[in-house]
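User: Can you help me understand a structure? I only have the sequence.
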Amino acid sequence: MEPNEPQSADHENTDTPSAAPADEIVEALKEPDSVAGGMSKISSSQPKQVPRRMTAEEYRRLLDRKIRRMYPWSVLLFLAACASTWFVGGPVYSAGVMGILLAHELGHYFQALRYNVPASPPMFIPMPFLMLGTMGAVIVQGAGFANRKALFDIAISGPLAGLVFAIPIAWWGIQDSTVTTIDPAQGSIIFGDPLILKWMYQARHGILAANQEVVLNPLLFAGWVGIFITALNLMPIGQLDGGHILYTLIGRKAHWIAYSVVGSAIVWMVTTRDFSFILMIGLLYAFGLKHPPTADDTVSLGVVRTVLGWLALGFVLIGFTPIPITAQQADPDAVTSSLESMIDSNPSIIPMRPMTDTDKPR
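Assistant: Let's start by predicting it. Here is the structure, written out as tokens:
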């Protein structure tokens, strides 16, 4: 995920950052106010001055200072995310998932350096009490510097770099995976499998029965997380990678698609009573569903980038699952059936029942 810094209302639709507002503006000197009759007034000989606006060079220096202050925090958050993923899944899972996420974020970061676009280092989000151990990372990009082609390259490089690691890691994990039969009499945690993983399972284990699941070992779990987060980031909404890509492909029409996707997600959550994505939608609203204009929306993408962009957005269809994690409760009927089977196979097992008055010793 790679949000742009917000622009001011005055500068919202300009093509260059030359008129960017300053955070640290020196207030214009004014004559001291004279007080008479409880009212203050400003001398008419000294007109009130308007705060000066930054030049492009000053704005760039300001962003560079902010970015330099972020580097120590970036390192600390990366280490914290390594610790939290180690805590929930062990060292193999931590190495796999952090490698995928780091590749994703560095894909964005190096492309930003290539186009001389100010961008923060990756800021990872550790979540030791979340089953995944992390919520990924974010890079903050200076607004008004990237044109249409630069923004496309920056946005798409992250998902492609992440998938270069995620898919082989998942396939490597599948080689050592086992298949288990789900027992409805026992509670279990089931991870939803996107199409691309189902195809990979079938290539390794053949067609699975309806009650069979592949057991996620640490490496396969890391690949599952990498594929899922990449597909989630490619959703065509606002400041997500998919939102950047879609805006560079079709311009302002992308806003209506973003509204439609978010609206459909809300309807789906209400209908299914599954609010797994409520935090994600809240963050998307906070960053904004509309995509701001680039420094130059008229720059051509060319045929290769256009095809690659639509293919990347299409990955959502095979990499995303709307029900990523399901907690399956034990089926009471299945528990009863299992107990009866045990009794039939071993008559010495006597089922317990409440004691009645006739059972009490006299």
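Now, to help you interpret it: The radius of gyration is 28 Å. DSSP finds nine helices and eight strands in the chain. Let me know which part you'd like to focus on.
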